Amino acid sequence: MFISDESYSVRLPGFFGDGQSAWRMLERQSMDPWYQVVRRICEGSGHRIEKLLATSASVLVGILEDRNESNSIEVVQVITPPWMNATALDRMETLVELTAGYDHSGEYVLLHKVECGVVYTTSFGGTSGTSLLTEAKTIYEDPKRNAPTVPECSTALMPKNPG
User: Fold this and answer.
1) Are 82 and 106 contacting, i.e. CB atoms less than 8 angstroms apart?
2) CB atoms within 10 A of CB 137
3) Which residues contact 128 (CB under 8 A, 6 or more apart)?
4) Which letter does DSSP use for residue 160 in this model?
5) What is the DSSP code string of 131-142?
6) Where are the domains of the chain?
7) Given this model, what pLDDT does residue 139 score?
8) 77-82: long-range contacts (C-beta < 8 A, 24 or more apart)?
9) What share of the chain is helix, strand, coil (3-state, %, to 5)?
10) Tens digits of pLDDT across the chain (163 residues)
11) Cross-strand partners of 4
12) pLDDT the model gives residue 69
C-alpha cells in the first residue's frame, strides 16, 4: 500500500477530475514486490501515456483486465525488494512473465521473470520454477517477449537461492 501525507497534496479542486487528487510524494513501507504499468490511452486521433503504480499483483490484475480498444499496456515493470533480488536496493526491471501458484507447503507464490531471464520468487523456500507449483496460472505475459534482442544479465544481479 502507498501512504500519503496531506502536506504533499496538490490542492486544485476538480483539476484532475472527479474523485481524483494529486500528490507530490508517496511512502511505501511494504517489502513486497510492486509494479509500474505504462499504459497508452487513445483519444481521438492522438494518444497520451499514463504510468500507474500497482501495490500488488491483485491490483496489477485489475489494471490488466481494464485493457480495451482505447487503451493498451506498453510495458509492465516489477520493483523487487532487496531480499528478493539479492542486492542492497530495490530494483526495477521489465517484467516478461508473472506466474502465480502454490508451492509444496501450500504457500501462495509469485514468480517474476524479468527481461534478462532471471526469475524472482516471493517464496522464502526458494521455489523458482513453474513445474514446482500446483495450480500455476500465468497472470501476465509480455506480448513483446519474443523480441530479437534481450539484454544480458550481470552475474552480480543474479539472485541467490534463499534456501
Assistant:
1) no
2) 10
3) 111, 119, 120, 121, 161
4) P
5) GG-EEEEEEEE-
6) 35-147
7) 95
8) 77/35, 77/36, 77/37, 77/38, 78/33, 78/34, 78/35, 78/112, 78/114, 78/120, 79/33, 79/34, 79/35, 79/36, 80/33, 80/112, 80/120, 81/31, 81/32, 81/33
9) 15, 45, 45
10) 666 667 666 766 666 667 677 766 667 777 899 999 999 999 888 999 999 999 999 999 999 998 888 889 999 999 999 999 999 999 999 999 999 999 888 899 999 999 999 999 998 766 666 677 889 999 999 988 765 454 455 444 555 544 4
11) 26
12) 85
- The residue to which cell 544479465 is assigned: 153
The C-alpha atoms of residue 95 and residue 145 are separated, in whole angstroms, by 9
Question: What residue has cell string 505475459?
Answer: 141
Task: Tell me the one-letter amino acid at 158.
Answer: M
Count of CA atoms in the C-beta half-sphere (13 A) of 122: 21
pLDDT of residue 2: 65
From its phi and psi, is residue 144 left (phi > 0), alpha (psi between -120 and 50) or beta? alpha
Q: What is the pTM of this model?
A: 0.77
